[in-house]
Amino acid sequence: MFNYDTVTQAVNGLKQRGYTIDFNIDNEVITCKETPITLMPSEFEISEVYRFEGNSDPADEAVVYAIESKHGHKGVLVNGFGISADQISDELIKKLKVVY
């Protein structure tokens, strides 16, 4: 796994390594509006996770996920945590849960 100091570095590093799709959470699924790709939790795996905690600003708290679908799609999902987290289904929460 790579080490990144910022969310931007993580996203750029993953994109350089082929994770080119920008995924967003849409309640029960992750989607990419540009492609359009929609993936249920059972259709993708998380290959890398990077968590960033804001030193001075809680709004800087985010998790960057490297996503790989069973169909060969590779992309990045950035999600806040705490009060800035997106509303998502229980199934998607279980899939994206970061274990430390």
Summarize the structure.
The protein has 100 residues and is α+β, with helices and mostly antiparallel strands.
Give an overview in words.
With 100 residues, the protein is an alpha+beta fold. It has one domain (7-96). Helix content is 17%, strand content 37%. It is built from two helices and six strands; from the N terminus they run αββββββα. It has helices at residues 7-16, 90-96, and strands at residues 21-26, 29-32, 37-39, 44-52, 62-69, 74-80. A six-stranded mixed sheet has the order 3-2-1-6-5-4, sandwiched between helices. The radius of gyration is 13 Å and the shape is globular. 20% of the residues are buried. The mean pLDDT is 85.
Q: Which features characterize this protein?
A:
alpha+beta; 6 strands; 100 residues; globular; six-stranded mixed sheet
- Helix percentage: 10-25%
The SSE order reads HEEEEEEH
- Main-sheet strand order equals 3-2-1-6-5-4
Query: Total strand count, please?
Result: 6
Cα distance spanning the termini: 15 Å
Radius of gyration: 13 Å
Taken from the alpha-carbon principal axes, the silhouette is globular
Q: Taking all residues together, what is the mean pLDDT?
A: 85
User: How many discrete structural domains?
Assistant: 1
Q: β content, as a range? A: 35-45%
List unreliable stretches of 5+ residues. none
Number of helices: 2
Determine the structural class based on helices, strands and strand pairing.
alpha+beta
Largest sheet: number of strands, sense, barrel closure? 6 strands, mixed
